[in-house]
Amino acid sequence: MMLQAPLSHYVLTARQSREVDRKTIEEMGIDGFTLMEIAGSSAAKAILSDRPGSSHGLYLCGKGNNAGDALVVGRYLMQHNIAATLVFLSGTGDLSPDAEKNLELLREFDSRNQLTIFESWGAFDQSGSWDFIIDGMLGTGLDSELRGDYLKGVQWANKQPAPVLSMDIPTGLHADTGESMGACIRAEQTFAFGGRKQGHYLEEGPARTGKITYCELPFPNHFKSSCNTFLLDESWVERPPAQPGRHKYASGVLYIIAGSEGLTGAAILAAQSAWAEGLGAVIIVCPRGLLSVYEHNLPSIIKKPVGDTSDDHFKPQHLSHTLEILREKEGVVLLGPGLGRQEETASFVSRFLSRNLRNTVIDADALWALARSGQWDKPDDTQWILTPHPGELSRFTDHPITNDYQRLNFVRTFSSDHHITILSKGMPGIIGTSSGTCYITNYNTRYFARAGNGDVLAGKVGAYLAFGRAPDDSCAGGLLQGKQKLDRYLETAQGLPEPRDFI
Ligand SMILES: NC(=O)C1=CN([C@@H]2O[C@H](COP(=O)(O)OP(=O)(O)OC[C@H]3O[C@@H](n4cnc5c(N)ncnc54)[C@H](O)[C@@H]3O)[C@@H](O)[C@H]2O)[C@@H](O)CC1
Ligand SMILES: Nc1ncnc2c1ncn2[C@@H]1O[C@H](COP(=O)(O)OP(=O)(O)O)[C@@H](O)[C@H]1O
Ligand SMILES: [K+]
C-alpha cells in the first residue's frame, strides 16, 4: 500500500493557503470573518486549557488578517477575565476589514475596562507583565525582510520571559522557505490555521515555531487536492509489523551488495539492521576476499561470495555471477553501503543497474557511481529507492542546492521526472515519490548524523521493501522506526546514541 496521509497533515505554501482561503470564501460563501472567528476561537480554547490561571495577555498586532486572528483570541480570553494589552505596529487606521471589525467588537466586549490599546510601537511603554505574548504581527502575507517597527517588535518579544504564541506562523518566518526574513519570532507554540505551512518544517522553521497546534478551518477537502506535501509522523504511518512467513524465503529476502576492504562495517550494519526486522533471509553478496570478515561477524546471514580470494572490492567481472545469484530467489536488493569508489566498482554498479530487474535501494557509494554515470533511466517495471545525504543529492544536478526549500523542490521534481522514490536525508528528512507527492519529517534528525546511521537506515528501508511494502511506505517505515528508537533512547540514556542503538 502506498502512503495515504490524512488531510490534517497536509502542508501548504503561502500561495496554496491563500488559494484555499479564496475558494472557500468565493465558492462556498463562507466569509473571511467567519474563518477568522473559527481560527481565533480554536486558538483561544487551546490557550485556556493549556494555560490555566492566566490573567493578562499582550497582543502584538500588524494590520492584516493575522492581527485579526489575534483580536479574536483577545475577545474570547477577555470573556474569561484575561485582560488584553494590544500594540498595533502599523497603527489602527489601515487595518484589513475583518481585523477592523474585530477591533470594534473587542472594544464593545470590554465591559470591565480590561483593554489597553497602544496605537504604535513608539507609544507602547513596555512596562507590565504578561502571562503570554500573542504574535499577530505577520502571517502568510509576509512578502519581504521585516520593515519598520516589526523588526523592533520581534526582537523585543524574543527577549521577554513570557512565552510567545504565534498566530499561524512566527512573524518573520517565510511561509514557504522557512527562512528568517531579517529577524524572526521564536515561538513556544504556533497555531496553524487551516493547514500547516511549509516554512514550519524547513530551515529555521522547527527552531522557531515551537509546538505546532493544527486548527482546522472549514475548507472543503476537494480544495486541498492541489496539495502535494504532507507531514510524516507516527500518528498515521503504520509501524511495519514483523512478518512471520511460511518458510524463510517466503517472508522476505533482501540481497545486500555492499562492502569493500576497509568498509565492511557499512555492509555489516546494513545486514544486521535488516535482519533485526524479521526478514526470512538476508543474503550478502561479497567479493570473495572479504568472506572471512562476514563469516566472523554475521553468523545468521547467508553469504554468497563472487570472484576469487584476492578480490576485496566489486569489479565488472563479478556482474554475471551476481545476477545469477539474484535469480535464485525472489527478493529485493540493497546496493551501495561501503562499496568504495574504485573505478572498477563504479563500472560494476553502472552495469549492474542497467541489467538488474529487482526492486532496489541504492545508497552511499552506489549513488556516487550512479550520479557520475548519469544513467537515471531504470529498466521498466523496476522500482528504485535512492537514499542520498545532502552531499550525494547535490551530485544529481548541476545546480547548487543550498537550502531546504531548493532541496524539497528538487526532490519533488527529480523523483517524479524519473519515476523513482528519493529518501533525502538531512533535517528534515524528505521523501519524494514518483507521483510528485513529498513527505517531510518534523523531528530532530541531527541525532542520526553519525557514520553508520545511514547504513542502518538503508537496511531498514531494504527490509520493508523486501516485505512487499511500497517504496514510499518503506522509506517512511525506516525513518520512523529510527525515530521511535531515538525517543526510547532519550527517555533512558544520555549522550549521543550510536548506530547499534537504532538496529
Ligand atoms: N480569510 C483568510 O484569508 C484567513 C486568513 N487568516 C490569517 O490571515 C493571515 C494572512 O493575512 P494577510 O494576507 O492579511 O497577511 P498578514 O496579516 O500576514 O500581513 C499582511 C500585511 O503585512 C504587510 N507586510 C508584509 N510583509 C511585511 C514586512 N516584511 N514588514 C512589514 N509589513 C509587511 C503587508 O503590506 C500587509 O499589509 C494568515 O496567516 C492567517 O493568520 C486566518 O484568519 C484564516 C482565514
Ligand atoms: N531514522 C532516521 N530518521 C531520520 N533521519 C535519519 C534516520 N536514520 C538516518 N537518518 C539520516 O541519515 C543520515 C546518516 O546517513 P549518512 O550521512 O549517509 O551516513 P552513513 O552512510 O555514514 O551512515 C543522518 O544524518 C540522518 O539525516
Ligand atoms: K504571526
UniProtKB/TrEMBL annotation:
UniProt lists the family membership as follows: Belongs to the NnrD/CARKD family. In the N-terminal section; belongs to the NnrE/AIBP family.
PROSITE patterns tied to this protein: YJEF_C_1 (PS01049), YJEF_C_2 (PS01050), YJEF_C_3 (PS51383), YJEF_N (PS51385)
Note the NCBIfam families from the entry: yjeF_cterm, yjeF_nterm
User: What is the UniProt remark on how the cofactor binds and its stoichiometry?
Assistant: Binds 1 potassium ion per subunit.
UniProt source species: Fodinibius roseus
Which keywords appear in this protein's UniProt record, sorted alphabetically?
Answer: ATP-binding, Isomerase, Lyase, Metal-binding, Multifunctional enzyme, NAD, NADP, Nucleotide-binding, Potassium
Name listed for the protein in its UniProt record: Bifunctional NAD(P)H-hydrate repair enzyme
Q: Which cofactor does it need?
A: K(+); Mg(2+)
Q: Which residues bind AMP?
A: 454
Q: Which GO terms describe its biological process?
A: metabolite repair; nicotinamide nucleotide metabolic process
Q: What is its EC number?
A: 4.2.1.136, 5.1.99.6
Purpose of the protein: Catalyzes the epimerization of the S- and R-forms of NAD(P)HX, a damaged form of NAD(P)H that is a result of enzymatic or heat-dependent hydration. This is a prerequisite for the S-specific NAD(P)H-hydrate dehydratase to allow the repair of both epimers of NAD(P)HX. Bifunctional enzyme that catalyzes the epimerization of the S- and R-forms of NAD(P)HX and the dehydration of the S-form of NAD(P)HX at the expense of ADP, which is converted to AMP. This allows the repair of both epimers of NAD(P)HX, a damaged form of NAD(P)H that is a result of enzymatic or heat-dependent hydration.
Cited Pfam families: Carb_kinase (PF01256), YjeF_N (PF03853)
Listed under catalytic activity are: (6S)-NADHX + ADP = AMP + phosphate + NADH + H(+); (6R)-NADPHX = (6S)-NADPHX; (6S)-NADPHX + ADP = AMP + phosphate + NADPH + H(+); (6R)-NADHX = (6S)-NADHX
Name the positions where (6S)-NADPHX binds. 139-145, 150, 168, 266, 338, 389, 455
Q: Which parts of the sequence belong to the YjeF C-terminal domain?
A: 231-503
- Name the InterPro entries on file: Carbohydrate_kinase_pred_CS, CARKD, Nnr, Ribokinase-like, YjeF_N_dom, YjeF_N_dom_sf
Q: Which GO terms describe its molecular function?
A: ADP-dependent NAD(P)H-hydrate dehydratase activity; ATP binding; metal ion binding; NAD(P)HX epimerase activity
Subunit info?
Answer: Homotetramer.
Domain YjeF N-terminal span(s) in chain numbering: 17-225
Sites where the protein binds K(+): 66, 135, 171
